[in-house]
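Researcher: Next sequence.
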Amino acid sequence: MELGNNTQISEFLLLGLSKELKLQLLIFGLFLSMYVITVLGNLLIIVAVISDPHLHTPMYFFLSNLSFVDICFTTTTIPKMLVNIQTQSKAITYEGCITQLYFFILFGLLDIFLLTVMAYDRYVAICHPLHYMVIMHPRLCGLLVLVSWIISVLDSLLQSLMVSRLSFCATLEIPHFFCELNKMIQLACSDTFLDNVVVYVLSVLVGGGPLTGILYSYFKIVSSIRGISSTQGKYKAFSTCVSHLSVVSLFYSTVLGVYFSTASSHSSHSSAIASVMYTVVTPMLNPFIYSLRNKDIKRALKTFFEKKPQKH
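Model: Next structure:
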């Protein structure tokens, strides 16, 4: 295989989280369990929203989309990792790596944009309650989700094409359990200055922009809640935001934790372990956060499972 030309590369090697066989078996069982919980939990959210007409509202429309994206987000990385552990193979084809990178960025960005849209939804519900159904009409909700998809598709396509034009040298080992963007750029032996600039600019735009929108929405929400005279009214208004605020805090704290831990330790292994938090743990916890405190979701699921088949 001739190295230095990306058209001749047939595969990369994903080093994973551990080289020890016993620890790999433990990781296999743990990640398989978390993946199954993630898929089933988010599927239940989707089923609840679709089956119950009372949940056909903007808030639950966005929530069902978030659950679908979380399933796809974990599916881009975990199944391949489990297969590699099971077969004791670290290989992933060049095409497979670029494809995994594309979908990982796509669904990661969709997570960010949907959380931002949900923050806007809570802002309208609390700050403009009398005009909520007028502002958040179905056409606008669909348009917000569509725009989120378009931006995410274009951004992930740009970054994937950017990586595909790189040339790689002798070291084709990725110190991660999936094809992570920064790790692949570091492996390249061609000039990566432009790639690093593009990654930095896009990270600021698609990362900092939505975060600013979320913070502004909650600033207005808190200001509006403080203006409510009754304690019960304040609690009722704030309780509608608790689940979303918990998910936002969990997602951004884990992402920022990965960034700062990587910057401070300069350890690829530490970065891979820290990445588990936002790639696996956060999508797994989202259904629990939204269902444990949500009576509507509980009622919808109870009704769905208690339905008796009609006799013809």
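Model: The chain has a mean pLDDT of 85. The beta strands are 11-14, 91-93, 173-174.
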